[in-house]
Give the backbone structure.
Amino acid sequence: MREPGLTKDLIAQSRVIAKGQRIRDLPRLLSTYGGQASQWAKKSSPILEIAGEDHEYHWYEHHGIGRFEIKLKRLPK
């Protein structure tokens, strides 16, 4: 079964799970992609059910640069 992509609807319903200095990977994000630390956010999508299991998309986003490192994560039961 093919996983659904990160759609505009999922992005619109996303929530911020860490922002700025609270992002553990912030130094790596700054050295790899640049930008200001305060403009970075780690976000997650609403829960999706795929093949009977719950999943969420997680990604990093910088206002003005874009979205990076989008991952589909399976949630523990």
